[in-house]
Amino acid sequence: MTSSQPLELLAPLSGVLLALDKVPDPAFSSRLVGDGLCLDPTSSVLCAPLAGTVSNIQDSGHAVSITDDQGVQVLLHVGLDTVNLAGKGFTRLVVDGQRVEAGQPLIEFDADYIALHARSLLTLMLVVSGEPFTVLADDGSLVQQAQPVLRVALQAGEQQAQEEEGEALFTRPLMLPNANGLHARPAAVLAQAAKGFKASICLHKGAESANAKSLVAIMALQTSQGDAVQVSAAGEDAEAALAALTALLLEGCGEVVNLVVEEQQVVADPEQETLLRGVCASPGSAFGQVVQVVEPELSISESGVGQALERAALDRALQAAELALQAMQAKAGSAAQAEIFRAHQELLEDPTLLEQAHQLLAEGKSAAFAWNRATQATGALFQGLGSALLAERSADLTDVGQRVLKLILGVTDSAWTLPEQAILVAEQLTPSQTASLDPDKVLGFVTVGGGATSHVAILARALGLPAICGVPASVLALADGTQVLLDADKGELHLSPDPAAIERQRIDRQQQGLRRAQDLQQAQAPAITRDGHRIEVTANVASQQETQQSVELGGEGVGLLRSEFLYLDRNRAPSPQEQADTYSAIAQALGPERNLVVRTLDVGGDKPLAYVPMAAEQNPFLGLRGIRLCLERPQLLREQFRAILASAGQARLHIMLPMVSLLSELRQARKILQEEAHALGLANLPKLGIMIEVPSAALMADVFAPEVDFFSIGTNDLTQYTLAMDRDHPRLAGQADSFHPAVLRLIATTVKAAHAHGKWVGVCGALASESLAVPVLLGLGVDELSVSVPLIPTIKARVREMDLQDCQQLARQVLGLEEADQVREALRGYQARDVETSLAVEG
Ligand code: PEP
Ligand code: MG
């Protein structure tokens, strides 16, 4: 070992220097996390102490690690116990994988807020890669940001730790009990323990892996409480390592852990459990055998063989991926599928992504390394923005990333050799995996990750495959071949189904198939109840292709065009002409006799639009969402009104405002619409209505009614805001039920107020697509049901089985019930009686 040029680390901020021994936190004072120094800050922007790459910035923004080109790794940790602030008070100025210069700002923090809400503001700078150093300033002295404070002695030619050979052994997945995941302190405890073994040890979270002996690598996994992790080890003491590290992880790696999670872990043991619950991503049921989906590990070497060659390799792979995605678009079975592959193609051209990759190529990295690092950094950025929807889009990015990476490495995806009747189980499926599933072999799937709004869920619905997501991670420990019953409607996976339940499921499926065929035959007939009351059944759409499909399936118009979905994956705003063309094409697909209800942009909450940048919000669902955002940026609304108005006359045009909670919002929007219509010389305004999805709007429906042409009830949001339960929360999914009498009472209030003023009411939330809900919605007086496209024939058929007077009586009865379960039970009872009556009539 020979020593070379020393490296000077700059003070990351101004403040009073303190020796680590004085830090009132044993994890730091004992140097468990690493050796270095502490500063009591007098400035509030944390800057890079050396040039290098951001190897990890924590989602919570309180810690960041920089690794320089010689492997020196420095961890900066602002304050003590600041992980508990969950990001509040911190603004991240860099992203994972980014190159930074010495002195470049990394994190801005609100010193007052942190001083008031965390244990201490003391900030640590630790050389976690372990090189020896000397401190250049005196204990207790005031140092200025960018002043050299540590001299690190670099050690040239140091031996890399020998990789242990041999087959890797894996633990079963276990759930992390730490309230804030493996942040600096527990990560240090784990890394320290792992270093005590000779075996090569990795910690895995889904498809990501980290060297378990590296504190920074563990932190970079950005784990959270409840995450399923696995440990693998290879080498002579692998078994002992796995046993010790499993115990340590379950104990919380030195942190006091929450007993609730420990209890859940016990309950979630698949050997003791017979039922696992998740959220319905796509309805239906299936009985089959478990097939665990495991992605192969790809080996990526960091350094390249020359910039020109590596650049050519990346370009070739990008072109091949482009062609493959084009082909997949062309043979996509549905508009939703095609749309997703088009979005993937856009990601391939994303300038920021390519810029990052090219930068890394210029630094001598291999094409595979550069591409992988760039997609990971962008994915982490999506994940870290605090939006469920963008986090789901990061799954798309991972998908595209893997596609290109495999092309660079020449790894061909061996077609899945699946047994018959497979029920796939995975941490997460990628959209392309989902789209390429063979419905003849795959009966359904179950994932730990994902949400009901993810692309994977959309694809599952398009393929007609039952699927549930948000299932406990213990599902990953089920053995291949285990026979399970998937009841996606109820969000349940039965692990030891009894023969009677299996038989019931088989008969149900058979009957559903027969019914579907009958419903399809009658799809074009109107939906008129047995006693002659007509209900309009329209479609919820997000594209022109879906509109076309809806007409083919008997849709009587579009009750909800989710306009934000038209451009959700775009990073550039569509031009006014492009917008106008889109609305006109959709209107033409419907023709002048059918309603087209265009909802203005419902951006914010779980639906960010890349080209409408918004500040991160603490409670996005309660923040600048829907009409609130559009009124803050009236230019956006004006432009959209203009584009929609261009399609006037091609269909029966209606404009609908989302998330209205105040009368003033309706009035302001109407004024803008009038101005735009006037500017275009239009004599007649199109119909203007609002969505009823906030309790204030439902309760004040009598005040809104005189000023609108129609209402459409968004039961998805109305349920979340009435019950105060996040609509995508996996653990609340069972309770956030639109059948709750509180939601039904608000629907009743809305309909009464609207009809008193001669206005019509639709329901466009998911409740309208539920067969079980049809009698109660009819009984409450709803005039239009706007449903997801494949369900149009089913809902129309169900209306034809109803008798309005019976429905009215049923509605009165269920409004008096106490809970959603009671409502469902009453409706099931009615459905069973109804089937008996129709059989008797037919017989
Ligand atoms: C709803 O909230 O019910 C609705 C139809 O709107 P979205 O699902 O698009 O929020
Ligand atoms: Mg809504």
Folded structure, characterized:
The chain is α/β, with parallel strands linked by helices. The protein has 5 domains: 2-156, Glucose Permease (Domain IIA), CATH 2.70.70.10; 169-265, Histidine-containing Protein, Chain: A (2-Layer Sandwich), CATH 3.30.1340; 272-293 and 416-506, Phosphohistidine domain (Glucose Oxidase, domain 1); 307-409, Enzyme I, Chain A, domain 2, CATH 1.10.274.10; 524-842, Phosphoenolpyruvate-binding domains (TIM Barrel), CATH 3.20.20. 39% of the residues lie in helices and 21% in strands. An 8-stranded antiparallel sheet has the order 10-6-7-8-12-4-3-14. Helix 13 links the parallel strand 26 and strand 27. Helix 8 (335-348) packs across helix 11 (388-409), helix 14 crosses helix 26 (792-800) and helix 19 (634-645) packs across helix 20. The longest helix has 24 residues, at 307-330. Bound molecules: phosphoenolpyruvate and magnesium ion (MG). Phosphoenolpyruvate binds next to strand 32 and helix 23.
